[in-house]
Amino acid sequence: MRLLLHLVCTLLLLSCANCIDDPGVVIIGAGAAGIAAASRLYKNGFKNLTILEAEDRIGGRVYSLKLGDSYIDLGAQWCHGEKDNVVYELVKDLNVLNDDFFVPLFYHSKRKLIDTEFTVKMTEIFETTYGNVSTDQKGPLGEYLTTRYNEATRDAWKDNEDKLALAADCLHSFRIWVEGYEAAFSWFDVAASSIYEVCEGNSALGWNGLGYKTILDVLMEKSAKSITDKVLLNHVVKQVVRSDSKVEVKCTNGASFTSDHVIWTPSLGVLKRGYKTLFTPQLSGEKVQAIQTLGMNAVLKVGLYFPTKWWNDDFRGVVFSWAASDLQKSGEAFPYGPKTGNKSWITTIICVTSVPKSPNLLLAWLAGALVPEIEKTSDETITDGVIYTLREFMGEDYPNITRPDRVIRKNWYIDPHFHGTYSFETVESRKLGRPQAEVLGEPILSDEGKPILLFAGEATNPRHHSTVHGAIESGFREADRLIELYRRF
């Protein structure tokens, strides 16, 4: 009898071990969060992995495009900070980062090139005003920053009416700059307070022409082929169906995958448009509230490749400051493409910058409420608008501004696989008390209490949302959740 009992127990243990030793995990999305989760799981013995990617490439919102001998980043651009930044920690000894901070030129629609002293001071006001918001500040960010900006400029030029008038014109530039940094269509939608934690150190570390894709290569390291072999491109997920102990993922191409766990990593923008139909059973009211109240809009980058370089080698970037009268009639001066009232979309150009290691390339950055319409605008009209703006503001100093022969962009907001660039905390989400990114990141448990549907991605990271390091942290977090689960057996 004891022998029989021993045999039964052994068989049960072996059966259980077979279930535990090779759990199936489907990761939806091969961006930074998905690759981070896959690499962490793979290194900890999880081999039954499937990664479903809607695009025809790996990377998600990390999108480094080869151009000549270097890369242009159409998505994530900089490593933001050093201390407690997982991106920096992963690459700090590889000599791949460079200091990409610079003070841009400021050009005014009437005064043209603004003097260096004013430009340096204005850049300082931009950064200190935006960077020193109290964590208990209530209301919209735009309201708070407008007050702070006016106070700072009055303090700086209280005895100089001419400079104060110029600073008043620069408020529009400041607003567009903040909306670009937040990737929000209006700075009045963004909460003034946030629990976001800035990583100390250089916040503008570029990739020295190597592209942000470098971090994906580092994440995968020696297991690159093993992980990429598990990625199925062009697989758009249409439904995630949960049962008591399994999850089935159905794709629009007819493919179907059943697994023990699913890690969802697509953007908040995708969730906003699909949460009602993507999940069966539907998500909880608390999680839906998080999806609805957190914000996700977009910033647009347009690469302009010129056959002949017309700018100086020391040119790094330019900010356009509009006189109030020119701002209001810009839609008449340049009547092509979208506009708000009589203000043209060209007034939403944050800046135009050079690109390290790409001597013939300029990058135009655009933000604000017109981004979705600008994304639908033709390359020709966008080129016309950017060149018109450069010539109007800088033509006296650069009389040989030519047209580019190639336009490179990624329309993040109208792309159904993203619907935006990165998330932000809204006034409404902050009113709810608990960080909504934390709510969004909570796993859904099976009847047995196991995490069966897990959520990762930058929008699920309360303290590092909107960043690649936040996305990677979230991927590691959910991978570790599963690793710890199976360690208990």
TrEMBL record:
<protein>
    <recommendedName>
        <fullName>Amine oxidase domain-containing protein</fullName>
    </recommendedName>
</protein>
<dbReference type="InterPro" id="IPR036188">
    <property type="entry name" value="FAD/NAD-bd_sf"/>
</dbReference>
<feature type="domain" description="Amine oxidase">
    <location>
        <begin position="33"/>
        <end position="483"/>
    </location>
</feature>
<dbReference type="InterPro" id="IPR002937">
    <property type="entry name" value="Amino_oxidase"/>
</dbReference>
<feature type="signal peptide">
    <location>
        <begin position="1"/>
        <end position="19"/>
    </location>
</feature>
<dbReference type="GO" id="GO:0046592">
    <property type="term" value="F:polyamine oxidase activity"/>
</dbReference>
<dbReference type="Pfam" id="PF01593">
    <property type="entry name" value="Amino_oxidase"/>
</dbReference>
<dbReference type="InterPro" id="IPR050281">
    <property type="entry name" value="Flavin_monoamine_oxidase"/>
</dbReference>
<keyword id="KW-0732">Signal</keyword>
